[in-house]
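In the current project phase, the collection of sequences with tokenised folds has grown. A representative record is quoted in full directly below:
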Amino acid sequence: MPKLPPSMLGEVPADADGGVAEAGPVARDEDPLASPVRVGGPWIRCYGNFRLEGDLRKDLTRLTMLCGPENGMRRLTKEPVEAEVAEGGAPVPFPLEAKKGECYRIFAVAEPTVTDLDVVVRSSRGASIAADHGEDRWPIVQPDRPFCPLEDDTLTVELAARRGKGKVVAEVWALRVSMSD
């Protein structure tokens, strides 16, 4: 389990450039739902200059390599999930065996014919627990931090085209964190 730097755990003040967008909640005993990782900062900076080049798998690999290792994450999926999505069509689901003490990010890239790709993560009870918040063809869930389930659960990741139709590839990356019971 990698040791997270204090800045990612919210234990130190914001960077010198500091803005509110980089400030995250600090986990406290009285706040059991506080994020175990810092919000913003390196989670956003990693994709700030990312641009698609046209090859789905290569674009996905570049995106994940920019945002995964830099933030202490490792690839969880052995191979990218590949699917076809269409506006108005049913979401394409795939399972994610989530563990308490791990945080996750889903990265996806769609063909240019899909101008808005949505990714939603649902609990085993069907509740949406994480989603991308952009209107583009390379969503990241969550865009400003990983999501961290409070218990082991079989989650469902749904890929759907809000606009357009085409192929999509996606990967799940994980970060082991320390969570108090």
Summary: Residues 132 and 142 are 6 Å apart (CA to CA). Residues 56-67 form the longest helix (12 residues). Helices lie at 42-45, 56-67.
